[in-house]
Amino acid sequence: MSRNVLEKLMHQLCVDRAVKQRFKEDPEGLLARYALSDEERAMVTGFDVAAMQKHGVNAMLTLGFWTENAPNRHPAAYMKALRGVASEGQVFSAGLKQ
Amino acid sequence: MGKIVGGFLVPHDPVMFVAPEAPAEDIRKRMWGAYDSCAERLAGLNATSAVIIGADHYFNFGTGCLPQYLIGTGDVDGPLDVLPGLKRQIIPASEKLAGFIADHGHANGFDWAVARAFTVDHAVAIPDRLIIDPVRARGQSIGTIPVYIAAGVDPFIKMKRAIELGGAIKAAVEAMPDDERVVVIGSGGISHWVGTPEMGKVNEAFDREIMDYACTGNLAGIGGLSDEYILENGGNGGMEIRQWAVAMGAMPGARGEVIDYAPVPEWVTGLGFVQLFA
């Protein structure tokens, strides 16, 4: 389990423009620099924020990671990824729908 | 000699800036108006410094260094996380008092981490902009001292220690030779779930419980809440009642008054505004 390394990467993908750019252009090359398991690498490249939270990653980081890097950065898409496909449309907040 | 002349407990909700029109009109007028009320009340206190207690959102600090509590003793600006209507700017500081609080703590069992030049995030920038800036605009000179505690990222500061930290701030202010008039602002909460599947949920019963502790000066009540209870009933964002506990700890015995409160799911938070009377 390398929650700590995953959180390090998530933090950098929230705040470091160069790391975000590398992730966009060469995700495998970037991830090779971190001691992550195959399963953890798949969580990152697959934007599996639900699995990351189950792994112990801080929810503020998964939100920031999604908002800064996901192909669809819409908050509703984040909530759908987090809650599962069945929950589509059940976003609590009108603010989150914007 | 320095003196704590009052306190405020307020939210720092970035969704208010991102989606200002989301709630019903009366609610949003009330909530923005509550900040105006805080500013109005602050103006009457003739404060010279404001200690604003916020929490890192895993943004200022990374896995390489996660301080339990930190004080900004030098230049301050922010927010780091710029929002619509909340651009980054230089924040007037109160360097002499901030340095004194750090030094006093170091001599008395509180090993403050220190930021000599600090870009705060929205936790400090929102109350600074909405409560203190309007008073500065009236001609009062108030320096901001940012304090960050570990309420968003584990290992969390213990509730007991948060209250003690407030006591350390009080002791330092009162040991300060200068005639500083200090306001403490606990910035955070109340119930909210950040980035979790429950995001958007608000628990009014929990919020009212916490405001009741604040209004009755019940340090034992708020200090006795377990992390499990807070996380279950107030969410991961509810851990920010630690900032309230610091402010309450700086004003032991103080009574409070709710300026306004509303559960606002559109802004993903129970928004509570309390004034503490010295």
What form of chain B results from the Cα inertia axes? globular
Count of helix runs of chain B? 9
CATH architecture group name of chain B: 3-Layer(aba) Sandwich
- CATH fold node name of chain A: Protocatechuate 4,5-dioxygenase, Chain A
Question: What percentage of the residues of chain B does DSSP assign to strands (E)?
Answer: 15-25%
Largest sheet of chain A: none
The mean pLDDT of chain B is 97
Question: How many angstroms does the end-to-end distance of chain A come to?
Answer: 36 Å
Uncertain segments of chain A of ≥5 residues (pLDDT<50)? none
CATH class of chain B: Alpha Beta
Q: Which range best describes the helical content of chain A: under 10%, 10-25%, 25-40%, 40-55%, 55-70% or over 70%?
A: 55-70%
- Succession of helices and strands of chain A: HHHHHHHH
Radius of gyration of chain A: 13 Å
pLDDT averaged over residues of chain A: 88
Oligomer: heterodimer
Beta-strand fraction estimate of chain A: under 5%
CATH superfamily of chain B: LigB-like
Number of strands of chain A: 0
Q: Could you name the CATH class of chain A?
A: Mainly Alpha
Radius of gyration of chain B, CA atoms, in whole angstroms: 17 Å
